[in-house]
Write a structure and sequence with these properties.
Blueprint (H helix, E strand, L loop, with lengths): L1 E10 L3 E4 H7 L4 H8 L3 E4 L6 H16 L8 E5 L10 H8 L8 E4 L5 H15 L4 E9 L9 H4 L4 E11 L5 E9 L7 E3 L5 E3 L1 H23 L8 E2 L6 H11 L10 H4 L6 H11 L8 E8 L3 E8 L1
Parallel strand pairs: 4-5, 4-6, 11-12
Antiparallel strand pairs: 1-7, 2-3, 6-7, 8-13, 9-10, 12-13
Bound molecules: acetyl coenzyme *A.
């Protein structure tokens, strides 16, 4: 039992924070940020704008693209690590905000920067089991809530936003979410985590080293598992953490940079929203085209890492 992509959407808060804005707030420079991370701007949600608001906006855009309403969807999964409320889940809030009249399963997954791949992994399982018809997967994060403005080494790295994809059951096993792999290693907890007072605690150089090892590993694993080679891949859409990580992963895999989608310059690291936001950007700008095969590897706090293959 396969699936296919039938809609996508994204939402970025209107407030754009440039590197120049950070220069005014802390001891940093546009040059340092661009050279070390490739980031030029990021979007920050307003104080009252919640993860659920952003997720709902992305979901609404995806439903419109697919010419569907929330009542055509029979499961909502949200990847988020930054919800304001411990309960209920953001996914449940989204169904309410979209005015669902049917009762459907809705839940969040917490996989940090790998969260969207964890959500796709769940969706693939449900399609394979044949128990759902149409699943909406949303990545939504308000990373700005966790930013410690006294820590210049993490403050400049993150942004807010949301992206949504809708898949529906199909007889083809070569479309939509074709394969997924997800991993976790809790022994590396200390390298990158949130603190009880909502701050990002990160060992940057260690995180960098693990990212450039594990994302290519996941990419190689999934190609082997799916029985394909690099020549079959049209695009790599890596988790948008920073440009040096992206370039290093591309080099390790032997992929030219013109096959790698880069949006980190515009969005910064939006954690679980990164892949869906990047895909929506690429579809909107006719960069990734219908029928192409996309490999999306990610890595994040946990440690968690993984990859997915999607024929769009
Ligand atoms: N502006 C100016 N200087 C800075 C800034 C800043 N914003 N931040 C750090 N520095 C300084 C440091 O204080 C240090 O100064 P010192 O040598 O006088 O002590 C110097 O820059 C170098 O610091 P490093 O941490 O060694 O810099 P590095 O080259 O490793 O780059 C970075 C830091 C960009 C964080 C890098 O380690 C990295 O990319 N790590 C991966 C982190 C990441 O992407 N995390 C996201 C979450 S996980 C994920 O999504 C994959």
């Amino acid at each position: 039992m396969g699936n296919k992509l039938v809609g996508y959407g994204s939402y970025l808060p209107t407030r754009v924070m440039t590197n120049a804005d950070f220069e005014r707030l802390m001891d940093t420079t546009d040059q340092w940020i661009v050279e070390r991370t490739g980031i030029r701007a990021r979007h920050f949600a307003d104080e009252n704008e919640t993860v659920a608001d952003m997720a709902t906006n992305a979901a609404r855009a995806a439903l419109k693209k697919a010419n569907l309403t929330i009542d055509d969807i029979d499961m909502v999964i949200v990847a988020t690590t930054t919800p304001e409320l411990d309960f209920p889940s953001v996914a449940v809030q989204v169904t309410g905000m979209l005015g669902a009249t049917k009762n459907i399963p809705a839940f969040d997954v917490r996989g940090a920067c790998t969260g969207f791949i964890y959500a796709l992994h769940c969706a693939r399982g449900f399609f394979t089991a044949g128990i759902h018809e149409r699943i909406m997967i949303i990545g939504a994060e308000k990373m700005s809530r966790f930013i410690d403005m006294t820590d210049r080494s993490t403050a400049v790295l993150f942004g807010d936003g949301a992206g949504a994809l809708i898949f529906e059951r199909s007889t083809s096993s070569y479309s939509g979410i074709i394969d997924t792999v997800v991993m976790a290693d809790g022994k590396k907890f200390g390298m990158l985590h949130g603190s009880p007072d909502h701050k990002i605690i990160m060992n940057g150089p260690e995180t960098y080293k693990m990212a450039v090892m594990l994302m290519p590993d996941a990419a190689r694993y999934i190609m082997e598992h799916a029985g394909i080679t690099q020549d079959d891949i049209d695009w790599i859409v890596p988790h948008q953490a920073n440009i040096r990580i992206v370039q290093s992963c591309a080099a390790r895999l032997g992929f030219p940079m013109d096959k790698i989608l880069v949006t980190v310059d515009k969005h910064a690291n939006t954690s679980g929203a990164s892949g869906a936001l990047a895909l929506a950007y690429a579809f909107d700008n006719n960069i990734i085209k219908h029928g192409q095969l996309v490999l999306y590897p990610a890595f994040g706090s946990g440690l968690t890492w993984g990859a997915t293959l999607i024929r769009v």
